[in-house]
Design a protein that fits this description.
Blueprint lengths: L5 E5 L7 H16 L4 E5 L11 H18 L7 E4 L5 H10 L4 H5 L2 H6 L8 H16 L4 E4 L4 H18 L8 E4 L32 H9 L17 H14 L3 H10 L4 H27 L2 H30 L2
Helix pairs in contact: 2-11, 3-6, 3-12, 6-7, 8-11, 9-11
Length: 330
Amino acid sequence: MFQRRILCGIQPSSVPHIGNYLGAVKKWIDLQNSGDNLVVMLADLHAVTVPREPDVLRRSVLETAASLIACGIDPKRSIIYRQSDLPHHTQLSWLLGTLTTVQKVAHIPTYKSKVKDDDSIPLGLFLYPVLQTADILLFKTTHLPIGEDQIPHLQLCTYMIEKFYHYYKQNIFPVPEMLSTETNRIRSLRRPEQKMSKSDFEERARIDIMDDENIIRERVMKALTDFDSQITYDREKRPGVSNLIDIYAGITGQSTETIVTEAQRANLNTGAFKKQLAQIVIEHFRPKRLEYLKLMNDRSHLLHILENGRERAKEIADKTLNEVKYIMGF
C-alpha cells in the first residue's frame, strides 16, 4: 500500500566523526546503492532545542551536507535537504501535538536523560520528539535506520499513528519499521569507556572524517590503549585496543576475529597496529576529503543541491500535509 521510503536524519554538527560515519552514514550509502528510496534530512530545527550561534549553525549545515555528499550520498538518487527549508515540519508537528499528552512525551528516556533541572526545562527539548514524529510521517516513512536508543521515539510515532486513526478513522500513515544500524559503537580515543562524541572537550578523543591526514595519524597513534602490547579483542577488559579493532573492522569490512588473527600472525604490537590502522583510515577518506574541499569551495553549487532537494522533498510534503489538514477539518 505504501511505497518503501527510508528517512535518514542527522543534526548538522559540522563534519561527522568516524563513529557517525561507521554507525550511520556508511549504512545509508549502502541502502542508497542497493536501490532504496532515501530522504536525507539535515535536522537543523532539532539542532536548536538549545540556542546555537547563528553563523556556526549555517556553516555546520553546509559542512554536514558536503561531508555526506563527499562520502557517497548522491543528490540525483537520494533527496538531501535542510529541514528548516520546509515549514511543513513544524506545522505537522503542531497538528500531531494535539494527539498526545505531556505525560506521554515526558516518559521518553532520552528526554529525561537530558533534563538536569526540572525547574528550567527548555520547551524545544521537551517537544522535539513530537517534531521527530512529524519528520517521519511527513514523508510516510516506511523504514528508519536507527539504533536501540531511538526505539522509544519510534514507539511514540506508532502511538500517534494509532491516535490519528482513532480520532479520524483514516489509515494514511504506514507504521515505520526499524532498520537496525547497530554495530560495535565507536568509543572515545582518549576515554574508551565512553562513546565518541562531538561534544567531547578534548579534540584528540575523536577523528572527524574530513580531518587532515596528519591529524588522523596523530590521533590514532595517541589513542589510549594499555600496557599489554599484544593485539586481542575484549571490549570489557581491553576497551582501548578493542575500539581500534572496531574502527579497523568498520572501514575494511573484516570481522574482528580475522583482524586479530592476522595481527597476531604478523606479530604486530599495538604501536605497529596503530600505524597500519592510521594508514587504512587515511586512504579510505582521502578521496572523500578532496571531494569535500571541492564542495566547500563552491558554496553556490552546494546551495543549489540543497535547493533542488528542497523542491523534491516539498512535492512529497505538500501532499501529506494537505491530506492531514483536510482530514482534520482545515
